[in-house]
Every structure is written in C-alpha cells, then in structure tokens.
Amino acid sequence: MLNSSLFPDAARFCYVITDRERPDLQNYHGLHPLEQALVSHSVDVRKAEFGDARWCAHQALRDLGEWDNEPILRGERGMPLWPRDITGSMTHTEGFRAAVVAPRTHVRSMGLDAEPADPLPREVIGSIARPGEMPQLERLRNEGIECADRLLFCAKEATYKAWFPMTHRWLGFEDAEIDIRSDGSFVSYLLVRPTPVPFISGRWMVDDGYVIAATAVT
Asked: Where does CoA bind (predicted)?
C-alpha cells in the first residue's frame, strides 16, 4: 500500500485500512476535544473518516519526533493547521485514511489524495481534464491503468493541497495541466499567475484497489 517512494526522504507517513461498511469511532473519540468539535454535528461516517485521518497525522508527527499533544485544527477551506515548523497533508476515502508530514526546513508544502481505483463517471471527465490531458489518459489505459481518469483527478487534488497553503488561493481543475508519466511520477504545470512555483512535482501508485497521488514542493 502506501510506501516511502511517494514522499521526500524527510517525510513521515501513516495509514490505516478500515471497514467500508461499519464506521469505527474509536480514533475520533481519542482526539483532543477541540478536534472532535470540528465535526461533532456530523454523521458517524464523517466522524470516523475525520478521526482516522487525524489519528494518522498524530502518528506521523510522533514518527517525526514532534510533540503532538496539541490539536490539529482547521484553517481556510479546511486546510489543516500543522505545528509551525511542519507541513503535511491528510486524505480519506472509503476504507482508507492516511497522513504525511515533513519539516519545513526540507519541504515547503505537500499534498496527498487517495481514491478507489475505479473509472470516473463518463460525464465527469470533461469538467476535470484539459484538452491537452486527454491523450495521456488513453495512453495510460493502453498500459493497463483502467482508472487513468481517477488518477488524473487524484493528481489535481494533491496539487491543490500543496498549492493552497502557499497561496491561500483557489486552484481550479483547469488551472493546472498534469503530465502523468508511466514511471510513477507526474508534473503539475501551474497556469495561473502569479504563482510561487511554475510547477509541482508528484508521485503516484495504484495498489490494492486504491489510486494514490502525492505532491511535494521542496
């Protein structure tokens, strides 16, 4: 499943596989009360997703050697508020939660996204893919990646998660053109101006029913 090849050497990560049918609130109930309050009025499925992802984040911070008794709260557009010297990202989807963190001395910003490895509904792809991205989807399918459109979606989500903490500005699907490469890497070329970086690099994998994309600005 998730492995270190997706991330910079300085990063630490954690993930959990969960029951897709039964939400487990154990990790949610173990959170700091201020973290619990962020989703206290949500349904149990949402509480379980939130609790598991936050649990993963705290485990990754411990692996990094960070004192992590402080809650990880939310900023603009749901952005996690990490400790001052840390950057990171979290993701959750059906049956899978994960988080990655790294010191800002090594990594400026990070993004992580995971989705079930299923093709997107046919009517959705036109709102996600730019014209220049369509040919590579066919190439990837010919190489056996049947969920190529879902991979593109994940890469754009991971790009946005790395972009927003640096800019505090929205980035639409049309604002980045993704070059997905067969070696498990991709490059997101940013088409908006001004931009703090011209592109964001990433890694991807498809494993055990999930497609996962991770980005890092070093």
From this structure: 46, 54, 91-92, 113, 157, 161, 171
Q: Is 91 annotated as a binding residue?
A: yes
Band the pLDDT of 21: cuts 50, 70, 90. Answer: confident
Mean pLDDT calculated for residue range 158-177:
97
Residue whose C-alpha is closest to residue 179's, from 195, 191, 196: 191
* 133 appears as a binding residue in the annotation: no
Owning domain of residue 169 = 114-217
Cβ atoms within 10 A of the Cβ of 72, count? 24
The pLDDT, as a whole number, for residue 91 is 98
Q: Is 141 annotated as a binding residue?
A: no
Per residue in 124-135, pLDDT (tens digit) is 999 999 999 999
What confidence tier does 68 reach under pLDDT thresholds 50, 70, 90? low
Q: What is the CATH number of the domain that holds 206?
A: 3.90.470.20
Residues 19 and 94 in one domain: yes
Does residue 114 have a known ligand-binding role? yes
**Residues present in the chain in total:** 218
What does R_g of the chain's alpha carbons equal in angstroms?
A: 17
What is the rounded average pLDDT of the residues 45-51? 97
Write out the E strands in the chain.
12-17, 73-74, 80-81, 86-93, 96-103, 109-116, 176-180, 185-190, 199-207, 210-217
